[in-house]
């Protein structure tokens, strides 16, 4: 896949495999896992806004985030600030999906001793972004309760409202947008929340199409989207690769955009 000015142009093989369908006349952008990479998010949003101005031609524009806004990267708080601002002032029809990392945070807020495993997969970085001294995984439960209380004190109420309002699934036309994927063989309306948030190999290795073309994050290979005949994975490991990606969907057309932090 070649890149010019942040626009990823699929190779012939990838383009031929890209699943296309109808989005009911809309222009849709879906963004992969951000993971606290605020600079990459800001640059990608600038590219999406410019692209939408050129292409929308009066069509409604939807912007869908596929979850995992926090953890791993250094600026979870700034990412949530930006997304909350978009929910109130952004120019797009906005949908923010819940990722397994947001669920990890909510579980920690509910029962920090039982959900201390969040420290192992990004909770440390998120606590630090809110100015909270992070406990170690195996610290005394009282330390985790202290960290939870400090987080609630430091976190703006709007951020908690944002986390609690996240969606699990969005369907538009021939496409459905989720965080991790869907359980093969299970109708979309009967999918379990845990699978939508956590499923990996059973979905990634599955070659059977779902009822709709699935756009998802959660699993990544490298800095390029994972394009398959029945799904598109748009997580490109921003916290490690430095590349945050989005897919642009129109009736019968697929395109990709990406961004790095300035100077990377």
Describe what this molecule looks like in 3D:
This is Serine/threonine protein phosphatase. InterPro entries: Ap4A_hydrolase, Calcineurin-like_PHP. Residues 28-219 form the Calcineurin-like phosphoesterase domain. It holds the Pfam family Metallophos. With 264 residues, the protein is α/β, with parallel strands linked by helices. It folds into two domains: 2-98 and 168-259, Metallo-dependent phosphatases (Purple Acid Phosphatase, chain A, domain 2, 4-Layer Sandwich), CATH 3.60.21.10; 100-165, no CATH class. It contains ten helices and twelve strands. It has helices at residues 12-17, 38-55, 76-89, 100-110, 123-129, 141-154, 157-164, 193-198, 201-204, 238-241; strands at residues 2-4, 7-9, 27-31, 61-65, 93-96, 170-172, 175-177, 213-216, 226-227, 231-233, 244-250, 253-259. The strands form two sheets. The chain has a seven-stranded mixed β-sheet, with helices on one face. The protein has a five-stranded mixed β-sheet with strand order 6-7-8-10-9. Residues 1-13 have low confidence and may be disordered.
Per-chain topology:
Layout: E1 2-4, E2 7-9, H1 12-17, E3 27-31, H2 38-55, E4 61-65, H3 76-89, E5 93-96, H4 100-110, H5 123-129, H6 141-154, H7 157-164, E6 170-172, E7 175-177, H8 193-198, H9 201-204, E8 213-216, E9 226-227, E10 231-233, H10 238-241, E11 244-250, E12 253-259
Parallel strand pairs: 3-4, 4-5, 7-8, 8-10
Antiparallel strand pairs: 1-2, 2-12, 3-11, 6-7, 9-10, 11-12
Protein name: Serine/threonine protein phosphatase
Organism: Sphingomonas quercus
Domain Calcineurin-like phosphoesterase: 28-219
